[in-house]
Prior knowledge:
- By secondary structure, this protein is of the alpha+beta class.
- 21% of the residues lie in helices and 6% in strands.
- A two-stranded antiparallel ribbon has the order 1-2.
- A hairpin with a 7-residue loop joins strand 1 (90-96) and strand 2.
Amino acid sequence: xxxxxxxxxxxxxxxxxxxxxxxxxxxxxxxxxxxxxxxxxxxxxxxxxxxxxxxxxxxxxxxxxxxxxxxxxxxxxxxxxxxxxxxxxxxxxxxxxxxxxxxxxxxxxxxxxxxxxxxxxxxxxxxxxxxxxxxxxxxxxxxxxxxxxxxxxxxxxxxxxxxxxxxxxxxxxxxxxxxxxxxxxxxxxxxxxxxxxxxxxxxxxxxxxxxxxxxxxxxxxxxxxxxxxxxxx
Length: 233
């Protein structure tokens, strides 16, 4: 996708100056589009003639993708999408749901730098636009097992406010399956990254090499995980 500047639409005719015809528009401002790289194309492919004044026949960037996304599997995406375009976090929205409640949209940051093992076309599949479909954009297609040990929970859930929904200590530290899906809770292990969801100030520079449950509950994370589910009656 081309992201550089584009020539402005021609201005109305102006009074003739030295060396100018009475109906000549002012020169178009310089831009970063390389005509030399597109020399094999006829001007009419992109520009109007006659009364069109040389305006583009399409609206960028979609008009560019019609050509540049014709064969995405063999395209060199990085030739147009520069590193400084792909390196910043890309905001996405994921849906978080628990039984008995409507799904809640949560903002998260997608990082291309953490997905270099995947090819672009594994996620960008829509014809022409190469937009990612909703399931992929929501991360769940790939990250169904995101509750594994040592996952950085705050990478996606940083915007959540667990303390607001868990006012008591018991509600915050035990019987998570009272609200959350039991099969999901059963996969959770209260490691340091899990605790950092709420205890942000203690996530760094607070006995960094220790697991929180070791001191606060006198149990290793694996031993304490049984407390996250409701004991059988």
